[in-house]
Protein backbone atom coordinates (compact mmCIF):
# COMPACT_ATOMS: atom_id res chain seq x y z
CA UNK A 1 0.00 0.00 0.00
CA UNK A 2 1.43 3.38 -0.95
CA UNK A 3 0.84 6.67 0.85
CA UNK A 4 1.79 10.34 0.76
CA UNK A 5 2.46 13.23 3.09
CA UNK A 6 3.75 16.78 3.03
CA UNK A 7 7.51 17.38 3.23
CA UNK A 8 9.69 20.45 3.10
CA UNK A 9 11.75 20.58 -0.08
CA UNK A 10 14.89 22.70 -0.48
CA UNK A 11 15.01 24.14 -3.99
CA UNK A 12 17.84 26.06 -5.64
CA UNK A 13 16.98 28.19 -8.63
CA UNK A 14 19.20 30.78 -10.30
CA UNK A 15 21.57 30.65 -7.32
CA UNK A 16 18.82 31.39 -4.78
CA UNK A 17 17.61 28.85 -2.23
CA UNK A 18 14.02 28.59 -1.08
CA UNK A 19 11.98 26.08 0.89
CA UNK A 20 8.63 24.71 -0.27
CA UNK A 21 6.07 22.29 1.12
CA UNK A 22 5.36 19.54 -1.41
CA UNK A 23 3.40 16.31 -1.56
CA UNK A 24 5.73 13.31 -1.41
CA UNK A 25 4.61 9.83 -2.43
CA UNK A 26 6.01 6.60 -0.96
CA UNK A 27 5.87 2.92 -1.80
CA UNK A 28 4.70 0.36 0.73
CA UNK A 29 8.21 0.13 2.18
CA UNK A 30 8.38 3.86 2.91
CA UNK A 31 10.75 4.68 0.05
CA UNK A 32 10.11 7.87 -1.92
CA UNK A 33 8.46 7.08 -5.27
CA UNK A 34 7.80 10.64 -6.43
CA UNK A 35 7.08 14.17 -5.34
CA UNK A 36 5.00 17.01 -6.71
CA UNK A 37 6.77 19.39 -9.05
CA UNK A 38 4.97 22.39 -7.57
CA UNK A 39 4.52 23.39 -3.92
CA UNK A 40 1.28 22.46 -2.20
CA UNK A 41 -1.48 25.02 -2.09
CA UNK A 42 -3.79 24.70 0.89
CA UNK A 43 -7.40 24.36 -0.17
CA UNK A 44 -10.43 22.69 1.43
CA UNK A 45 -14.22 22.61 1.50
CA UNK A 46 -14.48 24.03 5.03
CA UNK A 47 -12.45 26.03 7.52
CA UNK A 48 -11.97 22.93 9.67
CA UNK A 49 -10.61 20.93 6.74
CA UNK A 50 -8.36 23.85 5.80
CA UNK A 51 -7.04 23.90 9.37
CA UNK A 52 -6.27 20.17 9.13
CA UNK A 53 -4.41 20.62 5.82
CA UNK A 54 -2.36 23.48 7.28
CA UNK A 55 -1.58 21.42 10.41
CA UNK A 56 -0.26 18.60 8.19
CA UNK A 57 1.89 21.10 6.34
CA UNK A 58 3.25 22.48 9.62
CA UNK A 59 4.09 18.93 10.78
CA UNK A 60 6.33 18.61 7.71
CA UNK A 61 8.67 21.14 9.35
CA UNK A 62 9.59 18.48 11.93
CA UNK A 63 10.76 15.98 9.30
CA UNK A 64 14.12 15.97 7.51
CA UNK A 65 14.26 18.42 4.60
CA UNK A 66 14.45 16.83 1.14
CA UNK A 67 16.63 18.44 -1.52
CA UNK A 68 15.12 18.83 -4.98
CA UNK A 69 17.13 16.82 -7.50
CA UNK A 70 18.91 14.74 -4.84
CA UNK A 71 16.04 12.50 -3.76
CA UNK A 72 16.58 8.85 -4.63
CA UNK A 73 13.44 7.23 -5.99
CA UNK A 74 12.63 3.61 -5.22
CA UNK A 75 9.84 1.64 -6.88
CA UNK A 76 10.32 -1.46 -4.79
CA UNK A 77 12.76 -3.11 -2.47
CA UNK A 78 15.26 -5.47 -4.10
CA UNK A 79 14.21 -9.08 -3.93
CA UNK A 80 16.09 -11.28 -1.54
CA UNK A 81 18.23 -13.92 -3.17
CA UNK A 82 16.72 -17.34 -2.86
CA UNK A 83 18.86 -19.72 -0.92
CA UNK A 84 19.66 -22.87 -2.79
CA UNK A 85 19.26 -26.13 -0.94
CA UNK A 86 19.80 -29.75 -1.86
CA UNK A 87 16.14 -30.22 -2.84
CA UNK A 88 16.64 -27.74 -5.72
CA UNK A 89 19.15 -29.95 -7.48
CA UNK A 90 18.41 -32.89 -9.62
**Poorly predicted sequence stretches spanning 5 or more consecutive residues:** none
For the record, give the distance between the C-alpha atoms at the N and C termini, rounded to a whole number. 39 Å
Order of helices and strands: EEEHE
What count of structural domains? 1
SS elements, strand count: 4
Summarize the biggest pleated sheet: 4 strands, mixed
Structural class: alpha+beta
Helix content: 10-25%
Strand order of the largest sheet: 3-2-1-4
Radius of gyration: 19 Å
How many DSSP helices?
1
Mean pLDDT: 86
What best-fitting shape do the alpha-carbon axes yield? Answer: globular
Strand content: 25-35%
Can you walk through the features of this model?
This protein has one domain (3-71). The protein has one helix and four strands. It has one helix at 47-59, and strands spanning 3-13, 16-26, 32-35, 66-67. Strands 3-2-1-4 form a four-stranded mixed sheet, covered by helices on one side.
List keywords for this structure.
90 residues; alpha+beta
